[in-house]
Every structure is written in C-alpha cells, then in structure tokens.
Amino acid sequence: MTDVRTPQSKPAQSPAEGTGEVTGPFGPNGTDATESGGGGTSVPLDASAGWLRWGWRQLTSMRTALILLFLLALGAIPGSILPQQGTDPASVQQYYASHPALAPWLNRLGLFNVFATPWFAAIYLLLFASLIGCVVPRTFKLVGAARTPPPRAPRNLKRLPHSTTYDSALPPDAAASAAAGILGAHRFRLRRPAAGDSGQWVSAEKGYLREVGNLLFHLSLVGILVSIALGGLFGYKADKLLVQGTSFADTVSALDETHFGRFATGSDLAPFRMTLDNFSASYITSGQNEGQPSSFKASVTYSATPGGPSRQGVIEVNHPLSVDSVKVYLIGHGYAPVFKVTGPGGTLAYEQATPFIPANTATMLSDGVVKAPNANLGFMGVFVPTAISDNGTLESVFPAANFPVVSLIGYSGNLGMNSGLSQSVYQLDTTGMTKVNGSPHVMLPGQTWTLPDGKGSITFVGVQQWVSLAITYDPGQVPALVFGILALAGLLLSFFIRRRRVFVRAVPAASGAGSIVTIGGLTRTDASGGFEEEFAELAFEIASTGTAPPGAAAPVAPAAVTAGDDNPEPDNQSETGA
Amino acid sequence: MFKAKRRTVVAVAAVAVVLLAGALAVTLTTGSGAQAGVSYLNGNPAERVYTAGDRPLAPDFTGTSLTGAPIKLASYRGKIVVLNFWGSWCPPCRDEGPTLAVLAEQYAPKGVAFLGDDVADTPANALDFTRSVGITYPSLSDPGYLIVQDFSQVVPVNDTPTTVVIDRTGHIAGMVLGKVSYATMVTLLSDAAVTR
Amino acid sequence: MPVNLGLAHASSDFMVAALLIYSLAVLAFAGDYAFGRPRRAVKAVVRTAEPAAALATVGANTAGAATVAEATAAAGTGDVAGGPAAPAAPGSATGGAGLPARPTGAFRATWEAGPWIRVAVMLSAVGMLAHLTAVITRGLAVHRAPWGNMYEFITALTCVAAIFFGYIVVRYRAWALGVFVMGAVVIALGLAETVIYTPAGPLVPALQSYWLSIHVTAMTLSTGIFFVAAVLGIMYLVAEWYRKRVAAGKAEPGNALLERIPTGAQLDKLTYRTVIFGFPIWTFGVIAGAIWADQAWGRYWGWDPVETWAFITWVIYAAYLHARATAGWRGARAHYIQLLGFASLVFNMLVVQVFITGMHSYAGVG
Asked: How many CB pairs under 8 A join A and B?
C-alpha cells in the first residue's frame, strides 16, 4: 500500500525541532513509511524486475483498491437489474423474447449471469490480491512494532496536539515514576530512560489492537471468499415437488432439479427418505389482510438412512428440517387435483393426483395438464380453489380450497409420448391432437365428464396439496459465518481503538523542591474521537499524584492546545478505518 | 527493511503459485476416467460392462408388484435379472417398452428374468401401459424411488429409463443409462453370462 | 393474534403528532439561524475537554466549551462561547488551579445556547418521545417488531436518526445541524405517512421469524445513522463551497446563515465518526440477513436484488473509508462517495424492494 503524505507537516517534525532525537512524534516509524512508488531508495533495479515491482506496488496501492471497489459495485449493478440465469431462468427467456436484438449482446457480455462471469471474478480476485499484498507486509510490520519499545519522549512536549503542564510537589524522578505507575495501570506499554540517560521521562504507548483488528478484518474477508468457494465446489442444491401422501428417496432421479458443485456428484446426496404426511396452509379469513397467508406447515415422516429409524418432522417457512448434514426447506406449495381417466373401452387409463402450478400466488389460481397416453387423451386445465363466476370468467377469490373447481379443455389423439423425446410434465404437446370441446368444461369435485364419440371420460375426484422442497448442502456455510463474525470483530477493533502515545517529562522546579511536569499525548489518527477525554482523564490522574503549591500561577501552553487540531491525520502513515 | 519487503513479495508470490498449482491439479484430475473394471460398449459411457470379478453387489430388495404380489431379488438367485427403471409418464421409457417386451419373451427360456421398477407412478397408469405394449413381466411399484436409491449407492442410476443387468450370483454385470437398444441388450446379456 | 386496532390508531396519531412537533422544532432551529445571538459556539463542536483551557486565567468566560484560541478572540470581541460555561466545571479555574479540568456539561451548554435553541431542542425531544411511542405502539398493535414493511421501516429508521441526532447535539453541541437533520427527518416521515402508509397487519409467514428483530433492526439502525451522515455530508459540501467562495472573494464573509454551519473540517470529522458508527451495524445487518436467508430460502447469499444492492452499498461505504486514507481523495471527493453510498441505500429501499421482483418483495407497498 502506498503511504500517504499529509498536506500539512506536523510542527513536531519541523527542522526547528532541534532535538535530533526523533524525526517525528511517532519516531522513525513515521518516516520510513514515506517512500512512495519510487521503488526503493538507492538500489538500482533490473528493468523487468523493476516493472514487476512497479506493477505490484500499483496493485497494492490504496488508489487501486478504491478503483477496484468501485468496479465491484458497478459490476454488481447489472446483476440486480437484469434477470439472472441462476435464479430466474424463465425471466431470462422472457427478456430474450421482448428484447430480441439486445439480449444476445447482453449475453455475450455475460450480463445474464454476472456473478459467474470471468470479468466479475477478475475484479474480486484482483481486489483480494491487492488486499493480501497489502495485509501481509503490514502483519510483519505490526509484529515488528509490537516488539520495539515506544520511542523516547520528545524534548518539547508542548508541541504535541494535546499537552498540559502542572506543578508537582514530588521531585522529578518520583513524579515520573508516579506517572509511569498510572500509565502502567492503564495498560500502556512503558519505556523509561536507560541508565545513563539524562532527564526524567516516561514514554507510553497503547492501542496495537487497532491494527490487529484491521488485519483481522481484511484476512477474514479472504476467509469468507474461501468459504464461499468451498460451498460452491463441494455443495449442492436440489428441488423436489412432493404431493401429499407420497414419498421420495433423496436420489438424483427422484429430484426435479439438481445443481451440483464442481466436485460434488449424485453419490454425495444424503440417502434419506421422506414422506409428506400432511400439509396445511392457513390464511387470514377476514379484515383488511384477508387472503394473506398466516402459516404454512408440512408434516413429514423421514428416515435418515435406508432402513434407519423413521422420525416425524415438521417443515415450515423459516424452520428447515435438518437431516444428516443437509437441510430441507419448504419453498412453495400448490394444489394437485385428483383425476381419473378412462379410455374408450372404459378401461382405467389414468388415476393420479396431478400437481397444478399456481399462476397467481395470492389467489392460488393454478394451471396444469393431465396426460393419459394410453387412452390417447390429454387435458389442459385451470384449477380454482375458491371459485366465483365473474361475468362468465372463473376467478379465484381466496387461496384456500373452499370451493374448488376445475375447468378443462380436452384433446384426443397422439400425445407424442411414445416418440422417446422427453416432455415437460406440465405441458401438453397438442400438435397431432384435436380439441374435444369448444369452450372449457367446468367440473366440481365428484363430477364426471363423459367425452363425446365414446372417447372416454374424466372424473374430478378431489383435491390434494403438494409442497416444493429444497434440499441443500453447503460445507462452506459455517466457516463463512465464523469469518463473518471475525470480520465484524476486526472492524469494531479497528474503528474504536486508537493507537496513542503519552509522554511525561519532569524537570526540577525553579523553586527547588518539586518539579514541573509536562504531559503530552497524540494519536496516530484521532478520527474516531475520544482521545481528548482520555488524555484529560489521564492528565488529571497523573497530576493528582502530586499537588501544586496553593496560589501558584498555573503555567499554561495555549499554543500547543490548538496545534493541528483540525488535521485528522497527524502522521504520514495511513491507517484510517477498514 | 528493503530485504524485508523483498521477502514478503517472494513469500506472497510463492503462496499464490502453490495455490494456483493446487487448484489446477485438482481441476485436471477430477471428472476423468471411469473406475477400474468398467468398460464402455463402443466407447459410449451410457452403456457399461462390469468385468467379472469387479462387479458390484446388487442391493437385495423386496417390494410389491403393481398388482400387489410380493417380489424379492433374492428369489431370483441363479437367474440373470434385467431390472428396468421406468415410468408411464416418461416418453423414452414408453419408447423402449416394446423392445423390452420382445427381449423378455426371447430370453425367458434361457434363464433370464425381466423385472420393472415403476417410479413416480400409479398402478393404474402403469398397468395400462404395460398392457398396451405387451409387457408380461412384473414391475415393482416404487413411487418413492426407494429401490432406485438403493441402487444409486452402487451404480449411477440418475434418470429414467435406466436398465441394470444382474448376473446369476447377484452382482451387477452391466447397465444402460437411457433407452436400451436390442443390440446392446444382447451384448450385455451374453457378457452377464460370463462369470469369470 | 388479531391486530389491536386501538393501539394501531394510537400509533398513527402519535406519528402525526411527532411529525408536527418535529416541524415546529425545525422552525425553531431556523429561527435561531435567523434571529439567534451570533456566536461561535459551533467551533466547540469537536473539542470537549480543554484541560489547558481550564487553566487559562483569561476571564471566567473561556473555560469549558471554548477553545483557547476562540477564547482569546472572544475576549476581544465579546463573543461568548455559549455563555459562561466555566461554572459548569467548578473545579477548574478556581480551587484546583494547576489541575486539568474535567469535561464540561453538555446539557448546561445547550441551555445556555439561547432561547431558540432551547425551544428547538426541547421540541425535538418531545417529538422524539412521541415518535418512539408511535413506533412502540405500532409494535404492540401488531404483536411483533414494528419493521415488517416499508412504512414501518421508514418510521423506525427516522426515529433512530432523530435520536442519534439528539446524541450528537448533546455530545458535540451541534445545534447548528438541527435545521438540516430534523428537516430531513420531517420530509422522510411525511413521505411515510402519506405516500407509503400501510395499515397495521400481521406478517406473511416468510417474515415470521425472530431474525426480523435482528436483521431488520440492524438495517433500520444503520440506515438511520447513515441518514444523518448523508445530511452532514451535504452540509460539508455546502460549507466547503461557501468557504471557497469567501476565499475567492466572491462572497461576503458576513453571511449569517452560512457562518453558523460548522467548518468543513469539523463536519468532515463528524461525518467520519458517524459513518464508522453505522458501518459495523450495517455489516452486522447483512450477516444477520444472510443467516436468516439461509433459514428461509436455503442459501445464505443468492445475489437477490436487495442483497446485491446491500452489498453495493457496503462496498461504496468501504470505498469512502478507503478514500479518507488516500491522498487526493479526501475532502469533497470522499463525501461524494459517501453520498453515493447513501443514494445506493435509498435506491435499494425505495426502488429495488418495490419494483424489482425478488425474494425481498415484502414492502407491502401498493
């Protein structure tokens, strides 16, 4: 990370300082960070190595990080505005239909699957490379800084942003020791003059946790990325539509849709079996929220392994069922009217609860088809849970099956199911079929519709319900959470802990007994505030260890108080925030 | 200090190279190659032959037929069993039905038994189909894919139709992922007869 | 459990009352701008403890809230740092001569800021109480946390913004911000009450989870805080624009209104502190949302439009934090980024949740 120069220079760093002891209140550390892109100071480099080095510095600079962050945000925008293949493929198809010229170009740019495109991956991979390239050296630096003691106290503490002076009745060495005691009690790291040093002073430093938090946050982001990758590679997701009263085994052929990670296969599926015993959906029946669902509950019986003990379970929205290492979620529901179809000779050709798909989730008006290939009959229909007739059109006024009605259009002929090509269970291919009735035939439960010309009959027996379940396995889930919490902890540490230094110098008082004690303090960055109070509290405590002679005029250092107040970055090295 | 920076650059670069190499290695080595003992007919991975000695044991199942009669795999020991996973709602299954009917009749005197495993279906729908194409061998009623799951633990039964050929000792000798053809089945049945 | 209509009506009434009281408070803040005693008290916003100032022997008028530099200027011109604040630190200038003083009392300073400020702050406080009561009674009426749809979310977050502003006033004596922050609250609350109002009702099953209290609460809190930061950011840009005009000689420096705004540097610091207060809460809210998404939808992150925009908002605020540490990006540029972040947040709240279908479509609007 290139380090930042503040526009104003600190008074303490001016050449007029004249102490020669330190080049800045934060010591030599404050200045070694001033080398910027100029690649080393004195060593001439090989040309290509120099380019690599330049490139690396550019990548790990704050400016690049800023640009990459913007690109990341920008890149995510089309992923939220345009329909995405991964979550809503039907909408993508619709987009193609309504924007036939534009859609292929958007597809070439990967805008229908933004978060899986190479260019989006490039952005966040570069960002993470920049992050790692910045964080690793800083970790070494932190370890180094943690091992070096605080710098010696500057000679003129009055030039620091916060300072105060008071008279102490104690002699200089006692006053300094008392101050050291107070600071030590506040868990500052201390440094006292070595044997042979002149003057009585204390150097205290605190707040390394800030940088620890900063590094923890950034490294946790890497951890989150790895966890997401883990889930994406080894995890899987599957969907299953299950009709009330039926069961299924968790195996690829039973599942409606499966999405496996790169390294996951069908044999990784947890071998459980599950039966949907009952599903109940309750709705609000009166008042202004009439028709709004109030609860969905699926009762299941399952066994985690073939032949294992069977258990009862309940799956509700927000309450998935954990089976082994996978979770089973209740995603949706619908109605499956039960039909019986007989063929021309009266033989039973079809008898099954047929899932219909809701077209409108508020009213649960649903569409579906019935295919009876052996009787050469097919039906397209609409199921209306609570039906009223509005000028001849069937409408559903309430989502519960209070007054169920089906409306069917019949077709006879070859359904095309013997040709071998797969068909959707929810779609009827009417090419090669002839319509049986002109207008839809409406049926109540229990009614039978006998088709003309002896083609057969269909009976609307009753209504069942179905649920759609999602089965997911994500090994990166728990690690992602752990890293997320660590990132948050790091964030809090880095925002609210300041790295600060407090210096105390005691010189003998002019009057002989006692001493004049000057306390100075500064923070690396005071942007999060609060150091004024802390300094005031510390100064008060230190000063309380020695009382001033009554009536003495209190010397004051007004200039020091206002020095550099409005400058939030008293130092060269950039350390603000995350 | 300068050396420290060079060290960190080298360290980071080394880690990156190792990670990349690992990722590459993992990507390249997975998804390839069948297990030992499996060969593909005509190079088609949908038509598999398990050589004798490397044949996985077929899970012993019990169930009921579409007409309610009990069926147990163990009772077929000594015969070659062709187990066909199908459903009356599945067009490729319907397409291969006549082929299976013919094969069943042809191989019955040679000690080969054909069984169906009818999934996600109702007896009414299924029986109607079998009647219409002349399939006389029994099918298990397996609406919940339970037997499918048992077999999935051993061989890849991922879709319907899938046909598994089990030899006289109860081991899986071959399988077809998808619709069967007459010629393929003939080959698989003769391979299944080989037990060493 | 059916909705308690009596409490629901009470909630609406309290909300309207809060709106009216806040409007009066805004008028009072504006009145202070127009008619209040000229003072430089706002410069004291960022500096609270002045131990050395306490030791100054310059008059009794300069201890506590004023910087010593101001004090020396004040002694000359007669300006007073919000009145004699020294008595608020009794031990300072007198008996404990030689000892640094403790920070001075904030409520005292507010009281002494002048009659307009007194009235404005009191009205704001009463308004906050009414607002809080409205939010709580709404929650009691519907037997759940009162942030289950857009209306409830906005009323709750403006309550947070108002209370957070109250904290800033007390901590930093930032009365001059009153017009702007409370004005923005009034506008947002007005919108909520008129355009976005949704009658009290139970939640759909997808929202019936204790995570509502956690995730939406965190988002409400952080949005309220970012709201305040955005207002401060706009004020910063105005202050800087004015300062540049004065420096270029294009404007008379005696403009009373713009003189009262805190300096750009102080607003910059205050904005930063506000953002770093809100950013961890937003982060926590996103994490809590991910945990809830896993419970409800089977995956902890699916790039649902609202999720994506919450991520975009987070990235932009992260960019703001990075910008503040990058040469050439501090100052106005950083504030533009921060305002962009808030714009993204508002876009997420009002446009994405309402118009772009995804799994987050619970706004209950329309």
From this structure: 127
pLDDT at position A468: 93
Q: Are residues A320 and A461 in the same domain?
A: yes
Contact B146 A306 (CB under 8 A): yes
Q: Do chains B and C touch (3 or more CB pairs under 8 A)?
A: no
Q: What is the pLDDT of residue A374?
A: 84
Question: In chain B, what residues touch A249 (CB-CB under 8 Å)?
Answer: 144-146, 148-149
Same domain for B183 and B165?
A: yes
Q: Do A246 and A372 lie in a common domain?
A: yes
Does C3 contact A79 at a Cβ distance shorter than 8 Å?
Answer: no
**Residues of B with Cβ-Cβ distance to A416 under 8 angstroms:** 91
Same-domain pairing of B42 and B122: yes
- A161 and A140 in a single domain? The answer is no
For an interface test with A, give the residue of C269, C313, C337 to mutate (most A CBs within 10 A): C269
CB spacing of C69 vs A558 below 8 angstroms:
yes
Helix residue spans in chain B (DSSP H): 2-29, 91-107, 123-133, 146-152, 182-193
DSSP SS3 for C282:
helix
Nearest to A254 among B5, B131, B148 (CB): B148
Residues within 8 A of A (CB atoms), C 43-72 only: 46-53, 55-57, 67-69, 72
| B173 SS3 class | strand
Residues B81 and B151 occupy one common structural domain: yes
For the purposes of burial, counting CB atoms within 10 Å of the CB of A97, is it exposed (0-12), middle (13-18) or buried (19 or more)?
A: exposed
Residue A577 Cα, gap to closest chain C Cα (Å): 6
Task: Please report whether residue A218 resides in a domain.
Answer: no
Q: Which chains are adjacent to chain B, needing at least 3 Cβ pairs under 8 Å?
A: A
Domain total of chain A: 3
CB–CB contact A66 C326 (8 Å):
yes
When divided into structural domains, chain B yields a total of: 2
Does B107 lie in the same domain as B25? no
The yes-or-no verdict on residue A321 having pLDDT over 90 is: yes
φ and ψ of A487, to 5 deg: -60, -45
Q: Do B129 and A374 touch (CB under 8 A)?
A: yes
Note whether B45 and B1 are same-domain residues. no
Task: State the smallest CA–CA distance between residue A204 and chain C in angstroms.
Answer: 19
Helix (H) or strand (E) holding B64: strand B62-64
Q: Count Cβ atoms within 10 A of the Cβ of residue A480 and give its class: 0-12 exposed, 13-18 middle, 19 or more buried.
A: buried
* Least confident span in A1-10, A169-178, A271-280, C224-233: A1-10
Residue A543 corresponds to which tokens in the numbers above?
A: 């000063």
Tokens of A222: 């890497």
Angstrom distance (rounded) from CA A243 to CA B163: 27
Its ipTM equals 0.76
* Closest residue to A536, CB basis, from C3, C51, C321: C51
Model pLDDT for residues C159-187, shown as the tens digit of each residue: 999 998 888 877 777 777 788 888 888 98
The residue of A128, A290, A526, A565 whose CB has the most chain C CBs within 10 angstroms, and thus the best one to mutate to test that interface, is A565
Residue A327 lies in a domain: yes
Does one domain contain both B13 and B110?
no
Please name the residue of chain B whose CA is at the shortest distance from the CA of residue A347.
B128
Strands B70-72 and B62-64: antiparallel
Residues A189, A46, single domain; the answer is no
Does A407 lie in the same domain as A290? yes
Predicted pLDDT at C6 = 86
Does the beta carbon of C276 lie under 8 angstroms from any beta carbon of chain A? yes
Average pLDDT over residues A108-131: 89
Regarding whether A166 and A141 lie in a shared domain, the answer is no
Can you give the CATH number for the domain in which A545 is found?
3.30.530.20
pLDDT digits (tens, 9 = 90+) for B124-143: 889 989 998 899 999 999 99
Range of the domain at B86: 38-192
pLDDT at C48: 37
A164 and A136 in a common domain: no
Range of the domain at A136: 1-148
Average pLDDT, chain A: 82
CB atoms within 10 A of CB C210: 12
Helix (DSSP H) and strand (DSSP E) numbers for chain C: 14, 0
